[in-house]
Every structure is written in structure tokens, then in C-alpha cells.
Amino acid sequence: MNLAIALVTAVTAVLLFSPRVHGSPTWRATVTPLASIIGSGFLIIGPILIGRWGDLAPVAMLALCAFAFALGAAIRSNIVHVEAAQAAETLPRGAALLERASDWALGFAYVISVTYYLNLFGAFLVEEIGGVDETLPRIACTATLTFIGLFGFARGLAALEKLEVGAVGVKLAIIAGLLAGMALHAVNEARAGTLPSTPADPGSAWEQLAVLAGLIVTVQGFETSRYLGSQYDAATRVRTMRHAQLLSGGIYLVYTFLVGVAMPVDSVEGHGETAIIEMSRAVAPILPGLLVVAALASQFSAAVADTNGGGGLFEELSGGRLRAKWAFLLMAGAGVALTWAADVFQIIALASRAFAAYYALQCAVAARVAGRRRPLPALAFAVLALACLGAAVFGIPAE
Known about the structure:
16 helices, Amino acid/polyamine transporter I
């Protein structure tokens, strides 16, 4: 099993780092949203869904991915229509105000998402060194937030961004190895007649829906394509965002299905956000170490990217009055406060609410711009805006 996982991981890495793929502008445009969608949430979503929905976890995952794809359609509409109206200075005043409000919502969502990434970073780091004290992940997160904030203040984050190079390829290669190992394990369990069956949590339908709303952050990230206009044209961003969402959705569905058929429910309970590490030990000894590498690289690079994006966004929104380097410090300070005020699942739900608010505003912009010229899309975007507003209000932690 170890050999098969290592082989799949190595072959995938060779393919992803080949000049033809690594140097492709289309792939680079796809990687930016893909890296955010398949981020740290990938490692925690499987155990959460299995623990809540049992054998129906793939159905819950499908619903989450379908909702995210619908939100992506609103963002793609804004790439085509809103950006063109902004360039021509014909964007309606109401839409312009909503667009401005959505930028502020995204800025605050960045603050929470950085905290979310680095809390998971601390959790996986402490899990690897065998720590059991609940304060150790918070200490690790605080130290990392402080480092990023001070480094960004002193030198800018350009140097740290170099650490992101290749992180996506490494992460996807390890995920390929994980899926291959889980698939082989499931086949062996099926041959032995020991495939597990996991019952759903007996919570109410409303509670289950609220938990699902609290997990939006685990499949967000596609909106980053909206802000790559200086690098790629609208058609490329629309196409590659769609590819990133379809590819990530397929990976999430396969992963959730394999977690359900390869792992018994008692391996899910009691391990919190690092449950997948314990679960992977049952598949192959090589997997825990590989997953920790993927988790640490994913969390740190995503936190750096969102800190950098948030700093630039706050500088722009303040009209240059708040310099990016000061925004880095403020974001780090807010992240430290949030780290000690809430646990990781509460932060996930809070981040989901923040991004849901952003998506609600973006859907409202799309509906306003579509208007009477495209009544059916306008109605669909308006419904999505209301759904996101509901997720922002009612989303709850998945613990």
C-alpha cells in the first residue's frame, strides 16, 4: 500500500510540474482559485460530513458543491458584465454601492479566513509533534500570525509569496496519493466483507442545514478569479474558474465517498479538526506524514495569500490612508484575538458567515446588473442572494 501511494503521488507530481502543465497560462489561471477551494477545508470536511450525515455524506457534499457552483455563476456574471460596466462608467449607482460593500465584506472575510487557516496550521503541527494540550495549537497559531504580521510590516509579503511556488502541485499530488490509498483500502474492505455503514446524526433537518451553511468556507475560493483582471482577460477567468470548480467538486465528492466506505465512524469521533490524520493511519503508515506536509503547506500559503490580498484591499478601500503594511499588523492582531476567543469550528462557521455575506452582496450586484434585460438570471441571482443571507445569519459550527 505504501508503495502504491508513493508511486501515485510521485507520478502526479511529475505531471503537474512538467513544463507543459506548470508553464501553461491556462493552468496558472486555474490554479489560483483551485488552490483556495482545495485548501485546508479539504482535510476536515470528510470527517465532519461523515460524522453528521453518515452514508449520506456524499449527498451533503454534492449539495454544498452545487451551491458553490451556483455562486460561482454569479461571480462569473460579474466578471463579464459588471467589469465591462465599470470600465465604461455605466454601472448603476445601486450596483456600485453594493460592489463597494462587497469589497469591505471580503476584506473582513480575509481577516477571519487567515485566522481559520492558521488555527488549522497549529492544530496539524501540534498533532504531528504529539501535543495534547488544547492551548498549544493556539500558541502555534499566535506565533505564526505574529511572524506574518511583522514580516509583512517590515518587508512586505513578496518574499513569503515565494514559499507558495509549487505548493499547489505538492498538495494535489499528495491528495492523489490519499485517494488512491483510500480506494485500494476500500476495495480490500469490500473483498473481506467489512465495509462500514455509518448512520446519520439524529439532529433535526434545520440543524443539519445550518451546519451545512456553516461549512461554506471549505468550498470557497473561486471568487479569487474575479480579482485577476490585471493578469488574465475575462473569458480566461470565466473558463478557468469553471474548470477549477468542476475539478475541485469532483475531488471533494470522490474523497467524501471514500472516507465513508473506507473508514468506520468510531475513527471519526474524538479527533476534532485533525481526524483525517488518525483515519489515514488505518489506510497506510505513509499517509499521516504526507497529509501533515500537505496541511502545513496549504494553510501557510493560503494565509499568506489572504493576508497579502487583504492588506492590498484595505489600502485600496481606505483610499491609501491605511497603508498595506499597517493592515498586515491589524489583520494579524485581529487574528490573534479571534484565535483565543473561539475554537477552530466556531472560526470556520464565522468565516463561512463572512464569505456568505460577501457572496450575498455579489449575487445582489449580479441581479441588479442583469435587471430586466436578463430576467431569469436576475431572479436566480436574487434567490441566491437571499440564500447566502440566510447562511450568514443561521450558519452554525459543525462540532
